[in-house]
Amino acid sequence: MPVFTWEGRTRQGTTKKGVIEAPSEAAVMTQLRGQMIVPVKVKPKAKDLLEGFDLLKGGVKTRELVIFTRQFATMIDAGLPLVQCLEILGGQQPNKAFKEILLAVKNDVEQGSTFADALRKHPKPFDQLYVNLVAAGEVGGILDTILNRLAVYLEKADALRRKVKGAMVYPTTILVVAIGVIILLLVKVIPVFQKMFDDFGGTLPAPTQMVVSISEWLQSYVLILLGIIAFVAIAFFQARKHLPKFAYRTDALALKVPIFGSLLRKVAVSRFTRTLGTMISSGVPILDALEICAKTAGNRVIEAALMKTRAAISAGRTIAEPLEAAGVFPGMVVQMISVGEATGAMDAMLAKIADFYDDEVDAGVDALTALMEPFMMVFLGGTIGAILMAMYLPIFKIAENIN
Q: Which among 89, 153, 240, 318 could disulfide-bond with 247, CB atoms 3.0 to 4.6 Å apart, if both were Cys?
């Protein structure tokens, strides 16, 4: 969404400036008038030269956000003013990017903005979930409690993300090493054997000839092959980004893949129930909570199911009925949500489901690693062994003829 810088006057005659995300300049002016600010100047924000290069600018890690949230909650609970808390935490923040964000938030709060509105201007570190929970805490006067809940949520969500990434790192590493070793053998080692075989003359065995032919082809077209692979990968991710139907179908396919699909579904259930439970317990309206859960689902199929559920609830239905009709979530989850809805303990029930599926993800990751480990070892050892055997067959034949 475009970013605009604005300048305006309040009813008291003071001048205020800021940065805001909006679809157009007209939308910015409408938002400002809603905040009782008369817009004087609105223009698109100049692009940062390092925009898009987060590694150069420095990002905000989840751990840094958790530490900030916990420290902020402690200081608010101790009775320190909001601006002073932000000034202290911003001043001692070692991450320069995060420090700039916190000081900008402090300036906005000093100029009369609410804490939630000030955070909303920085959507990368402070997503919709964070901002909405803070807004609920400000309205209810329980900001310290909300911040502590946020810290717990962020820690558990980060732990879940690390589990899934950890499950992918090992097989990916082994696969990359295997492909690298095979390419090295075919491009550098096989030509040495080929030259030796040519000097001896004669006909090569069929397996050896096949490996030599693959080596010759790879030497000629390795750059083209790498270019094709890179093009396909870029085209795939661009298609997912710009073609919603393609993204929906690939996400639906991912949920049906054996083993991986089951793990992805468990991760999605854990994320959805923990997010929804945290927001409901913090006083966020159910419709707003479901919309945020849908946008943070990470899967278009689950996002569509949650948006349909939201529409059904706004029409007067219970949450369990449309969830069951969507067919995305397991029956046990739907039944537990139904019980929580009937007993008025929805947040507690959602927390129990999230804890249960966290354990299920742990078990799924362990099972996936145990399954992939021997498969990758057999693939690596078998492929390299077959290449070496094919190369030594002519040597055995030569030794036999010499004898």
A: 240
